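Entry:
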Amino acid sequence: MTPPPSAGLYLHVPFCLRKCAYCDFFSTAETNPWLANWHQLLCRHLALPTPRETRLTSLFFGGGTPSLLSVAQVDAVLKAVRQQFTLAPEVEISLEANPGTLDQAKLAGYRALGVNRLSLGVQSFNDEMLGFLGRIHSAEQARHAFDWARAAGFDNISLDLMFAVPGQKLADLHQDIAQLLVLNPEHVGIYGLSIEPGTPLQSLRAQDLIDEIAEETYVGFYHQIHTALGNAGYEHYEISNFARAGYRCRHNLGYWQRKTCLAAGAGAHGFDAAGNGLRYEIPADLENYQRQLEAGRNPAILLEKFTPAQAMSETLYLGLRTADGIDSQEFRHQFGQRPEQVFARAFEHIAPWVESTTAGRHRLNLDGWLIYDQLIQHFLTR
């Protein structure tokens, strides 16, 4: 019997105790009564008919702050998932967590339910920097949360580290990296701070109270992280992600490889890889989300249905985010042409930043990753 097609599933939990100063993701600090009933809305969403049977290889609770959900709420959602989908035996079940929302009992409960990957939003081990960023936890709380997670049985933990924060010095970054390495997580996500419109940091910059890190400083920080984590045995497998061998994030790899990812929760985005692919979103509107589900309607709306040219373009530039890059033979098998033929002029433009093998695999070098957004424009305007 042919197994059902594989997919990931993203579940958005758009609630926080307090919005961070840099965050422009869809979330709200107005949690009640929404948070108390959010699992029920997710369960309603998951119960909607699906066009075909699906086998989940990954499931990701993202946010917002998913660790605001109680163990009982996560249990209810996971039961709804198991009723609707087949779960692969090796399914990766991730949950993003803020250290300031965790305790030993909650972590033990999550692990007992089958959550097997924890993503801790540490950001820094410097309390002054955490205060500037608007985080609700301290460095000590982050270390406690990590230890509690280990004690609960989590053997796949990712830590987020932010860099290029206004006022940050190279010595501060060295300290953050050193303290992260003491904990020895399986995975590290790094985030260069960007000041986004509508955030408190953008307001501070408009008043000339803060300045963004200079470009050359940003580059130096990025190289320092790459070197330090590489020397510690981590693979820099994607622009912003490092992992021990065997611990790449399966869910996120699905995004970069254009694999189907279903979505539930207001503010979530999903992708269906059938044909050339289509992308949809669930509008970031809590009231509308509830109304649609109570009426038995799918709240998702179509964002984009890809043409063959768009599918080729996205396949290539998403692949270039990763250390694996693009395999010409795989690309030809999927689209009937080699990428060097389809994007000949683009490859000429980006040649100084591309490493190619004789077998026809292309990847960006480290400096190419630093200007990734500029380089991929050549694949969007061919």
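The chain has two domains: 6-255, 308-380.
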